[in-house]
Amino acid sequence: MTIEWVCKHHADLGIDQLYRILQLRTEVFVVEQKCPYQEVDGLDLEGDTCHLMGWDGNRLAAYLRLLDPTAHEGDVVIGRVVTAPFARGQGLGHELMTQALLHADKLWQQAPIYLSAQAHLQGYYGKYGFVAQGEEYLEDDIPHIGMRRPL
């Protein structure tokens, strides 16, 4: 599988790209994880939000969004981290995180990075310099914890 990484400001997304992003996020977060919630949350088009996509030809294999730190207390917020079912088990998640950190640093130099991690993934995100902050909490009946990558 050859992945082409594309990071776009929300204003530069094509309709097909946005559709595939929302389709993948709904497929995994709402249907597969059985979490009925408002997936389209109003943050995708906010400020300077950017969308990182990993394309395998015309299939969206991996995705996450980078929320503008000016709207989030100075932190770049990584969210909606997802790998498509067809692309799992090939280390693509690690490539996605590496790309996310490169793009976040390129877009917003010297900004700390925050994410809300599923609690069982603390060790995974720890490999990228993220440190747990606060207590675990339930989000859609899944244990989560806030994690920050300091400067």
Write the SSE topology:
Elements: E1 4-9, H1 15-32, E2 50-56, E3 59-67, E4 76-83, H2 92-107, E5 113-118, H3 122-126, E6 131-139, E7 142-149
Parallel strand pairs: 4-5
Antiparallel strand pairs: 1-2, 2-3, 3-4, 5-7, 6-7
Fraction of helical residues: 25-40%
Indicate the radius of gyration in whole angstroms: 15 Å
| CATH overall fold name | Aminopeptidase
Name the overall outline: globular
Low-confidence stretches: none
How many individual domains? 1
CATH architecture: 3-Layer(aba) Sandwich
Model description:
By secondary structure, the protein is of the alpha+beta class. The chain is built from three helices and seven strands. Strands 1-2-3-4-5-7-6 form a seven-stranded mixed beta sheet, with helices on both faces. The N and C termini lie far apart (33 Å).
List keywords for this structure.
151 residues; alpha+beta; seven-stranded mixed beta sheet; 3 helices; 35% strand
Summarize the structure.
Helices cover about 25% and strands about 35% of the residues. It has about 150 residues and is α+β, with helices and mostly antiparallel strands. It has one domain: Gcn5-related N-acetyltransferase (GNAT) (Aminopeptidase, 3-Layer(aba) Sandwich), CATH 3.40.630.30.
